[in-house]
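Good day; I would like, with your permission, to put a structural problem before you. A protein sequence and the structure tokens that stand for its backbone fold form the material at issue. Thank you for your consideration; the sequence and its tokens are set out here:
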Amino acid sequence: MAIEPMEQFLVHKIVALPPVMIGGFPLDLSITNSVVSMMVAAVLVVVFLAMAGKRELVPGRLQATGEALFGVVNSVLVEPIIGHKGKPYVPFVFTIFMLVFVMNLMGVVLAIAALAGFSEASFTPTAQLAVTATLAALTFLSVLVIGFIKNGFNMYKLVVPSGMPIWMLPPMIIIELISFVARPLTLAMRLFGNMLGGHVVMNIFASFVIMLGVAGLAGGIASLGFLGAGLSLAILVALTALELIVAFLQAFVFAALATVYLNEVVNLGHGH
């Protein structure tokens, strides 16, 4: 049997809907496995936060977990990076963190389910560039809107370094502008690349477990296949644990970069 590690990322329609014409161009609004995965992730986030936000005097496990995650965003990201001005933006960053984290986590958990034969359940939303690019673009545009609301036309300071000699301004403005515009791309590619690569490697080692195990059934020297299958299984378990960590770290990095971009427009032209 051929190994198809990329098959788990194929997007297909679950509910086909007629296209909607917008400006003469058809817009396909069919519900795909990608859409379903993201909807499930959003529902899980809402349900978890609703259950974790009971404000009990003695917090249960869910409330303690929710408070710990919120504390990571508030105390580790927003407060140290933005300062006291960052308080209004904690919900924004926390929402980004939770949504990315749950989508990453779903990919790992559902990839395990795929080993039992449920290949349709192995879809990972954040392993799709279209999804990460949309998240990055929405985050970037939100930061721009916040920046213009707070600073107006003073936003030009983002691409005009202070204290720069006039004769150096034209090339520096171009460099800063390119760097600024490239942020959504790097934000999207980082999350996409890490989640895609990790799941491909997991799929390959899972295939080794099955292929070497089946080969070992032939007996004789082929029985060494069981040894290879056991080793591959041990590596797969280790990779699964690593992917659980990566799921959290990539959500943290995504939220951290969003916080850094927010800091630049909230504290435009000065530190906090």
